[in-house]
Amino acid sequence: MVEPQVPDDLLYTNEHMWVRVEDGTALFGMTDRGQRALGQITAVELPEKGDQCQAGDEVGSLESSSTMADICAPISGRILEVNGQLGKNPDLLNHDPYGHGWIAKIQISDPSELDDLLSPEDYGRLADAEG
User: Where in the sequence is the domain holding 66, given as residue range(s)?
Assistant: First the structure.
Protein backbone atom coordinates (compact mmCIF):
# COMPACT_ATOMS: atom_id res chain seq x y z
CA MET A 1 0.00 0.00 0.00
CA VAL A 2 1.27 3.46 -0.88
CA GLU A 3 1.95 5.71 2.12
CA PRO A 4 -0.57 8.64 2.35
CA GLN A 5 0.74 11.97 1.08
CA VAL A 6 1.49 14.82 3.50
CA PRO A 7 2.63 17.77 1.34
CA ASP A 8 5.11 19.96 3.18
CA ASP A 9 3.73 23.27 1.86
CA LEU A 10 0.40 22.97 3.72
CA LEU A 11 -0.94 23.28 7.26
CA TYR A 12 -3.26 20.69 8.82
CA THR A 13 -6.01 20.19 11.39
CA ASN A 14 -6.62 17.34 13.83
CA GLU A 15 -9.77 16.59 11.76
CA HIS A 16 -7.67 15.65 8.70
CA MET A 17 -8.17 18.87 6.76
CA TRP A 18 -5.36 20.62 4.88
CA VAL A 19 -4.98 24.39 4.48
CA ARG A 20 -3.10 26.35 1.81
CA VAL A 21 -2.64 29.99 2.90
CA GLU A 22 -2.26 32.66 0.21
CA ASP A 23 -2.85 36.42 0.33
CA GLY A 24 -5.14 36.42 3.38
CA THR A 25 -7.17 33.43 2.21
CA ALA A 26 -7.19 29.77 3.16
CA LEU A 27 -8.00 27.13 0.55
CA PHE A 28 -8.87 23.87 2.30
CA GLY A 29 -9.76 20.26 1.67
CA MET A 30 -9.54 16.77 3.15
CA THR A 31 -6.16 15.11 3.52
CA ASP A 32 -5.14 11.97 1.71
CA ARG A 33 -5.20 10.06 5.01
CA GLY A 34 -8.66 11.45 5.85
CA GLN A 35 -10.21 10.41 2.54
CA ARG A 36 -8.63 6.97 2.77
CA ALA A 37 -10.17 6.47 6.22
CA LEU A 38 -13.63 7.36 4.87
CA GLY A 39 -13.36 5.23 1.74
CA GLN A 40 -15.06 6.07 -1.54
CA ILE A 41 -16.78 9.48 -1.18
CA THR A 42 -20.26 9.29 -2.70
CA ALA A 43 -21.76 12.70 -1.80
CA VAL A 44 -20.61 16.10 -0.55
CA GLU A 45 -22.63 18.84 1.14
CA LEU A 46 -20.62 22.04 0.65
CA PRO A 47 -20.65 25.24 2.69
CA GLU A 48 -22.52 28.22 1.26
CA LYS A 49 -20.57 31.01 -0.41
CA GLY A 50 -20.72 34.11 1.80
CA ASP A 51 -21.30 32.20 5.05
CA GLN A 52 -19.34 33.29 8.12
CA CYS A 53 -17.72 30.50 10.11
CA GLN A 54 -15.58 30.01 13.17
CA ALA A 55 -12.67 27.58 13.30
CA GLY A 56 -14.08 24.15 14.11
CA ASP A 57 -17.63 24.93 12.93
CA GLU A 58 -19.39 22.26 10.89
CA VAL A 59 -19.73 23.79 7.42
CA GLY A 60 -20.71 20.74 5.39
CA SER A 61 -20.56 16.96 5.28
CA LEU A 62 -19.13 14.04 3.37
CA GLU A 63 -20.84 10.73 2.75
CA SER A 64 -19.08 7.53 1.85
CA SER A 65 -20.37 4.04 1.27
CA SER A 66 -19.86 3.27 4.97
CA THR A 67 -20.18 6.51 6.98
CA MET A 68 -20.86 10.25 7.18
CA ALA A 69 -18.30 12.84 8.29
CA ASP A 70 -18.52 16.54 9.07
CA ILE A 71 -16.52 19.12 7.17
CA CYS A 72 -15.17 21.48 9.83
CA ALA A 73 -13.84 24.95 9.03
CA PRO A 74 -10.09 24.96 9.68
CA ILE A 75 -10.07 28.70 10.36
CA SER A 76 -12.51 31.55 11.04
CA GLY A 77 -13.70 33.80 8.25
CA ARG A 78 -16.09 34.17 5.33
CA ILE A 79 -16.52 31.51 2.64
CA LEU A 80 -15.34 33.12 -0.60
CA GLU A 81 -15.62 30.16 -2.94
CA VAL A 82 -16.74 26.53 -2.93
CA ASN A 83 -15.69 23.75 -5.27
CA GLY A 84 -18.91 23.15 -7.20
CA GLN A 85 -17.26 20.28 -9.09
CA LEU A 86 -17.54 18.13 -5.94
CA GLY A 87 -21.34 18.10 -6.17
CA LYS A 88 -21.17 16.39 -9.56
CA ASN A 89 -17.95 14.48 -8.98
CA PRO A 90 -17.42 13.78 -5.24
CA ASP A 91 -14.73 11.20 -5.94
CA LEU A 92 -12.34 14.08 -6.76
CA LEU A 93 -11.74 13.97 -3.00
CA ASN A 94 -10.47 10.41 -3.38
CA HIS A 95 -8.47 10.86 -6.58
CA ASP A 96 -7.00 14.35 -6.15
CA PRO A 97 -7.42 15.50 -2.53
CA TYR A 98 -4.74 18.22 -2.74
CA GLY A 99 -5.66 19.49 -6.20
CA HIS A 100 -9.08 19.36 -7.86
CA GLY A 101 -10.59 17.90 -4.66
CA TRP A 102 -10.35 21.16 -2.66
CA ILE A 103 -13.51 22.03 -0.71
CA ALA A 104 -13.65 25.80 -0.15
CA LYS A 105 -11.74 29.06 0.16
CA ILE A 106 -12.09 31.25 3.27
CA GLN A 107 -11.20 34.93 3.75
CA ILE A 108 -9.18 34.68 6.98
CA SER A 109 -10.62 36.88 9.74
CA ASP A 110 -8.05 36.06 12.46
CA PRO A 111 -4.57 35.24 11.13
CA SER A 112 -3.40 34.30 14.64
CA GLU A 113 -5.49 31.10 14.29
CA LEU A 114 -2.93 29.85 11.77
CA ASP A 115 -0.67 29.23 14.78
CA ASP A 116 -3.18 26.61 15.99
CA LEU A 117 -2.82 24.53 12.81
CA LEU A 118 -0.41 21.62 12.56
CA SER A 119 2.85 21.60 10.61
CA PRO A 120 3.34 18.75 8.13
CA GLU A 121 5.64 17.04 10.64
CA ASP A 122 3.13 17.35 13.49
CA TYR A 123 0.28 16.13 11.28
CA GLY A 124 2.38 13.18 10.15
CA ARG A 125 3.01 12.21 13.80
CA LEU A 126 -0.71 12.58 14.63
CA ALA A 127 -1.73 10.47 11.64
CA ASP A 128 0.88 7.80 12.46
CA ALA A 129 -0.31 7.67 16.08
CA GLU A 130 -3.90 7.12 14.89
CA GLY A 131 -2.71 4.20 12.76
Answer: 11-109
